[in-house]
Amino acid sequence: MNKNTAAHFNSICDCLPDSRGKLSSVLHAKLAEKIPPMRQRVRNLVTNYGSVKIDEVTVAHLYGGNRGVKTLVSDISYIDQKEGIRLRGYTIQEVIHALPRVEGEEYPLVGGLYYLLLTSEIPTLEEALQVECEWRNRSELPRYMLQSLKALPRDTHPMTMFSHAILSMQHESIFAKRYEEGSLRKENFWETWLEDSLNLTAKLPTIAATIYNIKNRVDDYVVPDPDLDWASNFAYMIGKGDNQDYKELCKLYFIIHSDHEGANASAHTTHLVSSTLSDVYYSCSAGMNALAGPLHGLANQGCLRWLLRLRDNFSSFPTREQLEEFVWDWLNAGQVVPGYGHAVLRTTDPRFTVQVAFADKHCPDDELIRLVKLVYEVVPGILQQLGKVSNPWPNVDAVTGALQYHYGVQELDIYTVMFGVSRILGLSANSVWTRALGYPLERPKAMTTSMLEDIINVNLD
Ligand code: AMX
To answer: What's the fold here for domain 136-290+413-436?
Structure first.
């Protein structure tokens, strides 16, 4: 952030009330305007078209993870199989282009992205800075959380620490307190949900940096720099404050991982848990536990581990033929190629593409980046030959680790936490809207195998 904008940032912050526990100004006002017509729209749909069929459920769906069955609504993002994610209707490239940025900086403020996710509008620079100020005012970590993080065994995975840190703050939930007091009406749930969301999202970079530091560096709390934006502060707190390129990468990283349609595992988990009116802390912590799985968010560390293994397998940069042989040996050993494939996408993930563009500009000669690009030339063709892989193209994780590694963040197990920092922006925005629209407790129906056989009229026992 340049001097002028830092001054502007500080003057906006100084005008805001100490917002802890009070209604946030800019987001609250905008949502209060947007929620009533949306409520009416949903009410009309359910009342007048409630019996219209959207999808069919087959036996294969029941045993196949309900893959692709349309059963949830989220207006915050949507994945088109061929185009990739759209956040509030904007492609990743459009989001990066349209969101406001500080003069002279390469990528937009993440505060602007949060504004977009919540309100569906591209903010002005001033509005984006106001979200950043809200976050700054709420960023201090409670001491008990630091103590409890430090008390965990040294080999605790950072994702466990992250989920634990979030959950440890649950008793601060304004929604939970007000609900217990009986002082909330259902149509106002979203207001306290928004407050909890701002209190939680404000602290995410500091929590992640603290976990990184406890595991790898100073074993202490680095206080955020009040002159820095939310994303750049993460870079600063892990000791990379002097590297403007890394700060830009953080902004890019935290924008592109923020939401990926409401039905992915972490989003769906958060949605389910929050549907019981478990607050933002409970539900986002649960979402992080889903993100921690190797088929979901943990894939980014697995992907880099695979790239390092590939690099170390050869004494010099591999040829295309050597790489092909390596990949076939890997697949024949019954392994999947990390970073390739996707449950929904059927094309190269645009989040991969924008990161490769960053790499082309900032570190084109990096050995791992060159490997990422060679793998991209070779692997899709091989996966296509397998004949069973629905999507042979790279997902977001095929390059994230290589970029972090280039900038010296070489502790692989922090990558999923960084993913989580970003993903909670989407999870919490979704859950504010879920409360605003009053979605009920989620409760699909389970059946036994015998019941299914009865419906089909077979007995395969
Ligand atoms: N390498 C080798 N085989 C693969 C493959 C890959 N990258 N992706 C899919 N396949 C195989 C599957 O293992 C499955 O084989 P099986 O029938 O013998 O079990 C078959 O292809 C069909 O699977 P699919 O329909 O293409 O994939 P899916 O929707 O079931 O799973 C995913 C999607 C991402 C879990 C899978 O592609 C995968 O394991 N990729 C590697 C791990 C990875 O990159 N995960 C990151 C996901 C993105 C994220 O959440 N961060």
So the answer is: Citrate Synthase; domain 1 (1.10.580)
